[in-house]
Design a protein that fits this description.
The complex is a heterodimer.
Chain A lengths: L3 E6 L5 E2 L4 E10 L3 E3 L2 E11 L3 H4 L1 H6 L5 E11 L2 E3 L2 E10 L12 E2 L3 E11 L8 E9 L13 E5 L30 E2 L10 E7 L3 E3 L4 E10 L3 E16 L2 E16 L7 E6 L10 E2 L3 E13 L3 E12 L2
Parallel strand pairs in A: 2-11, 15-22
Antiparallel strand pairs in A: 1-3, 3-8, 4-7, 5-6, 5-10, 9-10, 10-11, 12-14, 13-22, 14-16, 16-19, 17-18, 17-21, 20-21, 21-22
Chain B lengths: L12 H8 L21 H13 L4 H4 L5 H5 L5 H9 L1 H19 L10 H11 L6 E5 L8 H5 L4 H11 L7 E6 L1 H20 L3 H13 L10 H27 L17 H15 L4 H10 L4 H4 L3 H13 L5 H18 L4 H14 L6 H10 L3 H4 L4 H12 L4 H13 L4 H10 L2 H6 L1 H10 L7 H14 L7 H12 L5 H18 L2 H15 L9 H14 L3 H6 L3 H5 L5 H18 L7 H16 L7 H17 L6 H14 L4 H21 L6 H17 L6 H17 L3 H14 L6 E4 L2 E4 L1 H15 L12 H12 L8 H16 L20 H4 L16 H5 L3 H24 L6 H18 L5 H16 L5 H15 L6 H8 L7
Antiparallel strand pairs in B: 1-2, 3-4
Helix pairs in contact in B: 5-6, 7-12, 10-11, 10-12, 11-12, 11-14, 12-13, 14-16, 14-17, 16-17, 16-18, 17-18, 17-21, 18-21, 21-23, 23-26, 25-26, 26-28, 27-28, 28-29, 28-30, 30-33, 33-34, 33-35, 34-35, 35-37, 36-37, 36-38, 37-38, 37-39, 38-39, 39-40, 39-41, 40-42, 41-43, 43-46, 43-47, 47-48, 49-50
Classes of the chains: A mainly beta, B mainly alpha.
């Protein structure tokens, strides 16, 4: 067992805003007294960009990852070389979250090609015989509430075979098994490549209460299956992130699924509205972000699966904000 | 060894009695007396004072307005208080009940009149079963190795498959196929356990995974007949999970300083708790599939209390809407039931959600008859009439939640909306089973109309009538409608072809009939049931229902003469042809008879019927019958026998007992009861004749005695026989049947050698000596008054008994024999008195005795009238020869006692020697004439013996000495002063 190093951040939810003071304690616990060469604490905030293999090819993606952008970085020396007594020692610390120049403290975001992350790292240097001890701990930054009044932007939609765009007019058989909608990319309405004439008749109506979303509030709306010849298997909400990275050769834009929430299971009652409701997951979403080097945007797909194997998707770009 | 002669002290019983009696001391007002009330008001004081001058003893009772025993203590009786604290189980129970009370207060709105889910749970599990194979599809394994227990019951193929699967790490998919229902239940139980284990070992994510996988099973409607049971099993797991999460978060709010009150507000919860709670909700919100997301969120609904005050009231409507997304109507109705259940538990005041669930349900009601469902039924090979009954558990629950304390208007509205939907049998049924019975009962005629209009193809109609019947059993319809309701309903019921359907319906309606109508209608109904159940022996499959019918009839007809005049009642009983069931029914009848019959009866209808019933019970006894069962049956039959009385017609009474004996010869307690009854009969006769039997009554009494004499030997219990011999002998003696009494006593004496050393009491073997001692002492008391037979020697019974005692093989290390001899000494002393302590007196003076122990009690000695039996005192008149014989016997007995005391001179027996010596000393003191030198010397020796080895209890010795000194003050006892001087007290060194 030996010595343990731990960082405890004061706030239970670890959420801080620009201008606030990040405070907490470093806890050193050990049975015996600990000899050390100094303890330091580093706060760091970076944006990591990763190029997708699809955009630039496998090797480039592997080697050519864009250099991380540093947002904030500061180190303090907490304790000079010396000795900790046995038992538990708590050392309090404080970091003001101030930025130099015109840099912005972006909101924490965990994505695929874009990652915005803030960490605290505590290092305890020790003599040659003992290993140095390190403990890292993430804290979360929420961007400041956006100024200006929030205006909801409701959207009504109707889906019928006629409104579908991506239908192949060719002679492929209907009922061809589709892959899951994770491969569905931001386009407009589409359905698995099926002849329009072979599609069963259906009429779906609905609305989203707003495509401008407050990140702490759920996405809401309603969907009514007015009629459908084929039985409905499932209706799902697919939350998609669209990440754009700028680089030397231009930019790469990739859409990937964050989560898929089923809102209807089985052949739902006709004419009865089914609620659309999705909570935005923490960390995996952030207010829609546009900078010179990268962009993070979000979209939602309403995916309807019909018997036996038809897949219908309706796409809505979202604008997330924090108020 | 010197022989000590015995000299009995002459006793003047009257004087002794007078001197021993406690003196009545008048109690002045104001004197302390424990039984006097403490509270005395002023006005009363005056009154009592005045009264006290005339009769002071009555003062205490006259002012006793408040019971002193209860007034001293504040409400609680000390014994029960003490018992409650002394008994840990009771204490736990008390705490439990207080906790339950607190729990109930928590759910302030839901009272105890709300039928809880736990009641429904068992019913559903029992009703919805399947023989088809089930499967569980899990994406992560439960604990490794545990699966092994379940595999035992499975086919080889599945087993190998499982073994492969067992090796997979968490996250792999497991599919268990071909599970029987029991296996399935076991698996679910295992999952429940592994959930608890995972939680206990801090694997919260694994716990959540288990719960998600389990609730996913609820979206699977294959083997649809089992769905309701599956719902019950899986929601149990969800409940467990909900409780674990809530308690965990609750415990986070509790720190060393303060405990969160039961009704806390979100501000009281600390940040860590809130954050944890929020985390759970975020995690659950991202569950992909609808049904697991719904169930898991509903299961932790209560946790919203940590986040905001309005959390629950916002969540419930949203979850209600969420259910609209569930396509399968069966799955969705059960989801609604679960939501209502959680809602009622957590926030019973939020009625709106319940109503919304109901109306949403009505909107989707048409789906039941939609294509998707029909296709599914075809695939599974399930008919609509067996599909629809899967709905009621969930619907009933929803309806029950809504109708609980609901205003009449809402119920009426709900009913109207149900009416509007086509084929509403299903709805109608749930309305009837969930709404208040009074509500239904007042509209019975409407309901009958609606039931008639229902479409026959869907929901079975007999179930509807059953539900209606259940309501009518609880609440009364308007007076004017009652007969019409019965007629209308029975018209339909009687047309039911399937005996099972019929009996399920009829059983319920019997209650209504019994409640409101006379025996004529009940008779008709019973006749109809017989008619339906007899063909093809249909009754064999319906014993439970038939039994219920009997129970209901009995419950409403307390007058057995009316009950048995219902013509079809006995033929109805004949349908119970399986013996165990028949006996059960007989027991019910007898139980009711004992409970409700107030007066003794001689009604031939009742007697005939009940004798038949009792005979049935008796005849069921065989070698394999359990002791308990026999005791129960005997108790019931005895209850009946005690209730039969022919008044003054004693002969008929006796012949009834004779008949009973022949009928119930296999049950010993019944025979014992019969002997007691016959003895009682003899004593009754004596009482009626005021002790002077006429020729006729003497013959009758002898018949009674003969009855007992020939019945007793057929009993098995040795002490039962002994005591009954003694008792019957006493009765014979009291009725001047001297030779019969002798026969009884001789029989008892000859039985004594057969007493085994150990006897079985309540299944445990115990030494019999103490029982034998008790019996013999009792016997001696009786022997005092038994006159000697002219053809036998003096005291022949005592001698015979002494011989038997002498020959009996006593326990090696016991003094019982000597104790008995000491008692004999007492008897002989009493016999040598001029006038005995008690005699057989004239009837009517003492009360007739039914218990053998009473006979030996005190009786006033009244001589010189008819109807009494002369004892030896008047027979011998203090003849010196008789006294000599008596003293000779005493000497022999004393020699025996002394001999025994000598053998006790060894180390380990010294204590016994001391106590026996002292007891002998006391006997001499009480019964011997100490003016006799030898006896005097003997007593001094015994005193020394008792103290010799320091074994005597000093306090006892001191008390004894004090007694002697006190006695010496009495006129004839002055010689005791001298004795007291010769008895030194040993001081302990």
């Amino acid at each position: 067992m030996g010595t343990a190093l731990d960082i405890k951040i004061k706030r239970a939810n670890k959420v801080y805003h620009a201008g606030e003071v990040l405070s907490g304690v470093v806890v050193i616990s050990s049975k015996d007294s600990v000899q050390h060469q100094g303890v330091s604490l580093t706060m760091e905030g970076t944006v990591n960009l990763q190029l997708s293999a699809k955009s630039v090819g496998v090797f480039e993606a592997f080697y050519n990852s864009v250099k991380p952008i540093q947002i904030i970085n500061s180190t303090i020396e907490m304790v000079k070389p010396g000795k900790f007594p046995s038992g538990k020692t708590e050392i309090p610390f404080e970091f003001p979250l101030h930025l130099k120049g015109n840099k912005v403290l972006y909101e924490t975001y965990h994505g695929v090609f874009v990652n915005i992350q803030y960490t605290l790292r505590c290092d305890m240097k020790r003599s040659l015989l003992a290993k140095d001890l390190t403990k890292t701990c993430e804290f979360i930054v929420h961007s400041a509430p956006q100024k200006g009044k929030f205006t909801p932007s409701p959207v009504d939609f109707t889906i019928t075979p006629e409104t579908l765009q991506n239908v192949k007019e060719g002679s492929q058989k209907s009922g061809h098994p589709c892959s899951r909608p994770s491969s569905v990319l931001p386009g407009q309405r589409q359905v698995c490549r099926v002849k329009r004439a072979l599609l069963p008749k259906f009429l779906l109506r609905g609305h989203l209460n707003s495509t401008n979303c407050v990140i702490t509030q759920p996405l809401t709306g309603e969907l009514v299956v007015e009629s459908s010849e084929a039985a409905i298997r499932s209706v799902e909400l697919q939350l998609v992130r669209v990440e754009t990275c700028g680089c030397a050769e231009g930019y790469a834009r990739d859409a990937t699924e964050i989560q898929n929430i089923q809102i209807a299971d089985g052949d739902v009652c006709r004419g009865l509205s089914v609620p659309i409701y999705m909570v935005f997951p923490r960390l995996f979403t952030c207010p829609t972000l546009e900078t010179t080097n990268f962009k993070v945007e979000f979209e939602v797909n309403i995916v309807v699966l019909l018997h036996p194997d038809h897949l219908i998707t309706e796409n809505f770009p979202l604008k997330l904000c924090r108020i | 060894m010197a022989v000590f002669p015995w000299h009995s002290r002459n006793r003047n019983y009257k004087a002794e009695f007078a001197s021993c009696r406690l003196e009545a001391v008048p109690l002045e007002f104001g004197d302390y007396h424990p039984l006097k009330p403490i509270t005395v008001t002023e006005s009363k004081t005056k009154k009592v004072n005045r009264k006290g001058s005339t009769s002071s003893t009555s003062s205490s009772s006259s002012s006793s307005v408040v019971d002193p025993l209860s007034s001293v203590l504040d409400g609680t009786d000390p014994l029960s208080m003490f018992a409650a604290t002394a008994d840990p189980a009771a204490l736990a129970a008390a705490m439990d009940s207080s906790r339950r009370k607190r729990d109930r207060d928590d759910n302030s709105v839901v009272g105890s009149d709300f039928e809880p889910w736990t009641n429904k749970r068992g019913e559903i599990l029992a009703r919805y079963t399947t023989t088809e194979k089930l499967s569980i599809n899990l994406f992560m394994g439960s604990e490794k190795g545990k699966a092994g227990t379940a595999t035992l019951a499975m086919s080889e193929k599945v087993r190998t498959r499982l073994e492969e699967l067992d090796d997979f790490e968490e996250g792999s998919q497991k599919e268990l196929l071909n599970l029987t229902q029991q296996d399935y239940v076991n698996r679910i139980e295992e999952l429940n356990q592994s959930l608890k284990d995972a939680w206990a070992s801090d694997q919260k994510v694994k716990a959540l995974k288990i719960v998600i996988q389990c609730s996913k099973l609820l979206s699977d409607t294959s083997v649809i007949q089992f769905y309701p049971s599956k719902f019950v099993l899986i929601t149990d797991i969800l409940d467990t999970f909900g409780k674990l999460v809530y308690e965990r978060i609750f415990s986070m709010c509790v720190d060393s300083r303060s405990v969160l009150p039961d009704h806390f507000s979100p501000e009281n919860a600390n940040d860590t708790a809130k954050e944890t709670c929020l985390n759970w909700f975020f995690k659950i919100a991202s569950i992909r599939e609808l049904i697991p997301r719904f169930y898991v969120e509903a299961s932790i609904l209560k946790c919203n209390k940590f986040l905001s005050k309005t959390g629950i009231s916002e969540c419930l409507p949203r979850l209600t809407c969420m259910i609209r997304g569930i396509g399968d109507p069966l799955v969705s109705v059960y989801a609604r039931a679960y939501l209502c259940r959680v809602g009622m538990e957590v926030a019973p005041h939020l009625k709106e959600t319940l109503n919304k669930n109901f109306f949403d349900f009505l909107l989707t009601f048409k789906q039941i008859h939609g294509d998707t469902v029909q296709n599914q039924l075809v695939v599974q090979g399930v008919e609509l009439p067996s599909y629809l009954p899967l709905y009621p558990p969930a619907m009933d629950w929803i309806f029950q939640c809504i109708s609980y304390h609901a205003p009449e208007a809402l119920l009426t509205e709900m009913m109207e909306r149900c009416k509007k939907l086509g084929n509403n049998a299903l709805l109608l049924n749930s309305v009837m089973s969930a709404f208040r019975a009074e509500f239904i009962a007042t509209r019975s005629m409407d309901f009958i109309g609606m039931i008639k209009e229902c479409d026959e193809s869907g929901f079975p109609k007999h179930l509807l009538f059953r539900s209606l019947g259940l309501n009518l059993a609880l609440a009364d319809p308007p007076e004017s409608d009652r007969l019409q309701i019965l007629n209308e309903a029975w018209k339909v019921i009687t047309k039911l072809k399937n005996p099972q359907d019929y009996i399920n319906c009829a059983e319920v309606w019997v209650e209504y009939t019994c409640k409101h109508f006379t025996k004529r209608e009940v008779n008709t109904v019973l006749a109809d049931v017989i008619k339906h159940m007899t063909p093809d022996r249909a009754f064999e499959d319906s014993y439970p229902q038939l039994q219920l019918i009997i129970k209901k009839v009995i419950a409403h007809f307390h007058d057995f003469s009316v009950l048995f005049s219902v013509e079809k009642f006995l033929p109805f009983l004949d349908m119970f042809q399986k013996e165990s069931v028949r006996v059960e029914v007989c027991k019910c009848i007898m139980d009711a008879f004992i409970k409700h019959q107030q007066e003794p009866t001689k009604d031939p209808v009742i007697l005939n019927a009940l004798l038949h019933v009792c005979k049935t019970m008796h005849d069921s006894v065989n070698a394999l019958t359990l002791e308990d069962e026999k005791r129960m049956l005997s108790y019931l039959i005895n209850g009946f026998i005690k209730m039969v009385s022919f008044g003054r017609d004693f002969e008929q009474q006796l012949s009834f007992y004779v008949e009973s004996r022949s009928m119930f010869c296999n049950l010993e307690p019944v025979l014992v009861q019969l002997i007691h009854s016959v003895n009682r009969l003899a004593m009754e006769t004596r009482k009626v004749m005021k002790g002077n039997h006429s020729r006729k009554t003497a013959a009758f009494v002898r018949a009674c005695v003969a009855y007992c004499f020939i019945t007793i030997p057929s009993l098995a219990g040795i002490f039962t026989r002994l005591n009954l011999y003694l008792h019957s002998g006493q009765v014979a003696l009291a009725n001047q049947c001297l030779s019969q009494a002798d026969a009884f006593f001789k029989a008892a004496i000859s039985l004594v050698p057969e007493v085994p050393k150990m006897i079985n009491i309540d299944g445990k073997m115990r030494p019999s000596e103490s029982f034998l001692l008790e019996f013999l002492c009792n016997f001696f008391s009786t022997l005092l008054i038994v006159p000697d037979h002219p053809e036998h020697g003096v005291l022949f019974l005592v001698r015979e008994l002494l011989n038997v005692i002498q020959d009996y093989t006593w326990e090696d290390n016991s003094d019982e024999k000597i104790r008995i001899y000491t008692c004999v000494l007492h008897l002989l002393s009493a016999m040598s008195q001029e006038t005995y302590l008690y005699h057989i007196d004239k009837a009517g003076y003492a009360r007739p005795h039914t218990s053998p122990h009473l006979v030996a009690g005190m009786k006033a000695a009244v001589r010189g009238s008819h109807g009494k039996v002369d004892s030896n005192d008047s027979l011998y008149g203090g003849d010196s020869k008789f006294l000599a014989e008596n003293n000779k016997l005493c000497e022999t007995v004393m020699a025996q006692i002394l001999e025994h005391l000598k053998t006790l001179a060894k180390d380990e027996a010294l204590k016994r020697q001391s106590s026996l010596g002292l007891s002998f000393f006391n006997s001499i003191l009480a019964h011997g004439d100490l003016r006799n030198n030898k006896l005097n010397q003997l007593s001094v020796n015994l005193w020394h013996l008792a103290q010799r080895h320091g074994c005597a209890d000093t306090r006892t010795m001191v008390k004894t000495l004090e007694y002697i000194k006190k006695q010496s003050k009495q006129p004839d006892m002055t010689h005791l002063t001298e004795l007291a001087l010769r008895l030194p007290l040993q001081t302990r060194t």
